[in-house]
Amino acid sequence: MNRAYLLQRGTRYVMRDIIDVIFMRLQDVELKLGEESESDIEDADIDSNMDSGYGVSCVVDIFYFLCSLLNVVEVVEVERVSSHENIQIFGLVLINSAIELSWDAIGKHPKLLRIIQDDLFHHLIHYGKSSSPLMLSMICSTVLNIYHFLRRFIRVQLEAFFEFVLLKAAAMGSSSQLQEVAVEEIKNFCRQPTFIAEMYVNYDCDPICQNIFEQIGKLLCKLSFLGSSLLSFVQIQAFEGLQIIIHNIADNVDKEDYSCPSEPYPVQIT
């Protein structure tokens, strides 16, 4: 274990601690004049008269830096692919930590929310389409965290992620390891209490959106009955996914209160 490795590991621990401290306190940070604007141009004059290096502006700069770690491939083109992925995974670890610790506070700060909607999802979808199994797992974990805390703000982004990344990775043409990861991540999404209802209401019932819930169901059914005499791990995963969906629907039906049908699981169409 050389000094360079020890220095790198120590530096990453420090960065993780800094991110934890900053984003843990984001819920206590109040918006000031000009920070509610989503445009950098609109509040340029206001920021010139403020201590823009502190408060939300500082958090925005830090989070933007974390997202830029995912784009390291274009910066270090001569290095090995493994080094690229190593930096990207570390960036995703920090982003996941920031989202988990800030809970839904990011949704109260338009600039942070815009970074997630635009920059972060652009990188997640771009690199998710041609990633390794480990990288895809980390990307899906990040999207699941964003969905858990900020689902009201990522309707278009979530649709694009399923259509261009997750469903394609789980299709027959993918490698076996990548396919297993993709199907497992679909199961993780389906385990969320309101995911099935939200997918159906927000996408399948909208004529201008893709039928995400229908595509998930068709894919799991297709993978469950591959026609092979030997039962594969992907088939078992697909069966479990269908079982999770059916149980999810059945549980919500059992909880339905006819005197107030929207009470058990209110679904907000975003």
UniProtKB/TrEMBL annotation:
Residues 56-212 form the Mon2/Sec7/BIG1-like HUS domain. One of its GO terms (molecular function) is guanyl-nucleotide exchange factor activity. It comes from the Eukaryota. This is Mon2/Sec7/BIG1-like HUS domain-containing protein. It comes from Hevea brasiliensis (Para rubber tree). SUPFAM superfamilies: ARM repeat. Keywords: Guanine-nucleotide releasing factor. The lineage of its organism: Eukaryota, Viridiplantae, Streptophyta, Embryophyta, Tracheophyta. The keyword Nucleus does not apply.
